Amino acid sequence: MSQPSDTLHNPMSLAGRSLLVTGASAGIGQATAVLLSRLGARVTLNGRDEGRLADTLSRLTGEGHRVAPFDMGDLDAIPAWMKEQAALSGPFDGVAHCAGIQTLRPIRIFSQEFFDQVMRVNLGSCLALAKGLRQKGVRAERSAMVFISSTAATAASPANIVYAAAKGGIIAATKGLSAELLPDGIRVNCVVPSIVMTDLIERGFEKLSQEQIDHLQRLQPLGFGHVDDVAHAIAYLLADTGRWITGTALTVDGGRTA
Ligand SMILES: NC(=O)c1ccc[n+]([C@@H]2O[C@H](COP(=O)([O-])OP(=O)(O)OC[C@H]3O[C@@H](n4cnc5c(N)ncnc54)[C@H](OP(=O)(O)O)[C@@H]3O)[C@@H](O)[C@H]2O)c1
C-alpha cells in the first residue's frame, strides 16, 4: 500500500525553483509564466513592454517574482544581462524562451534586413541564452532550457520561409546544445507547436482571407491550440517529469503533422 506522502508527490512541482521566462508579456510566454508560478516557481519575467510585463506579474501565484525588461535581439549583451538577473533572482533552474517574432512575407520581398531581424530574435537569442545560462552563478547545479520551434519548420509554411528556417534552426540548435551543455548539467529541449491563438497569429491572420484561415484550421484535426496546451508541455520539460529528456523536439500540434 502506498504511503500518504506518495499520494502527495507531484513530479511537476517547481517549488523552490528559479525560472526565467522570455516573451512573458504576451501569449504563450504569459501563459507559461502563470503556470510555472502555480507549480511553485519564482519567475523572472522578460519582454520589452513594461506595462504588459506588470500585467503578467499581477497574474502570478506566490511570491518572489520579478520583471526584467530586455531586448532579446541584443545578442552580445544577453550573457551579462543574465548574470545580473541571476544575482537578483538566484541561479536559474531553468529558462523557458518564449520570445519570438513572425511577419508573413513572400520570398519576392526578401531582404537582408528582414533576414537579420527574424534570425536574430528567433534563433540567435536561443544561442545567446545558452551561452548566458552556462556561466557559473547563472545556472543552478541542474538546469533546463526549453525553446519554442514551430511546425512552420516541419510542414510547408508559404510566405513564412525565413521564420520557418529560424524555427528549423532551433531544432538543430536544441540537439547540438543538448550535447554541448551536458557537462554543465543543463538539459536542452524544444517544443514544436502548430497554430495557437495569440497576438502573433492574429496579426498574421490580418493578411489572410477567411478561406485561407478556414484552410489552416482544417489542417489541425484538433483545431487551433490554446496557449495552455504549449505551456503544459514546457512545464513538463522543465520539471522533474523531464529529467531524463534532453535534445528532444516535442511536437504539440493538434495532429497537424501526424
Ligand atoms: N502562436 C502560435 O501559433 C505559435 C506557433 C508556433 C510557435 N510559436 C512561437 O511561440 C513563441 C511565442 O509566440 P506567441 O504566439 O505567444 O507570440 P506573441 O503573443 O506575439 O508574444 C511574443 C512575445 O515575445 C516577446 N518579444 C518579441 N520580440 C522580443 C524581443 N526582441 N525581446 C524580448 N521579447 C520579445 C513579446 O514581448 P514584448 O512585445 O514585450 O517585447 C511577447 O511577450 C514565439 O517564439 C513564436 O514563434 C507560436
Strand order of the largest sheet: 3-2-1-4-5-6-7
Average pLDDT rating: 96
The distinct bound ligands, ions and cofactors come out as: NADP nicotinamide-adenine-dinucleotide phosphate
**Can you count the helices?**
9
**End-to-end Cα distance:** 40 Å
Main β-sheet description: 7 strands, parallel
Beta-strand percentage range: 15-25%
Number of domains: 1
Class inferred from helices and paired strands: alpha/beta
CATH topology: Rossmann fold
> What's the helix-strand series?
HEHEHEHEHEHEHHHE
Task: Write up this protein.
With 258 residues, this protein is an alpha/beta fold. It is 42% helix and 15% strand. It has a seven-stranded parallel sheet with strand order 3-2-1-4-5-6-7, sandwiched between helices. Strand 4 (92-97), helix 5 and strand 5 form a beta-alpha-beta unit. The protein is globular, with a radius of gyration of 18 Å. The termini are far apart. The model has no long low-confidence stretch (mean pLDDT 96). Residues 22-23, 25-29, 47-49, 52, 71-73, 98-102, 121, 148, 150, 193, 195-196, 198-201 line the site of NADP nicotinamide-adenine-dinucleotide phosphate.
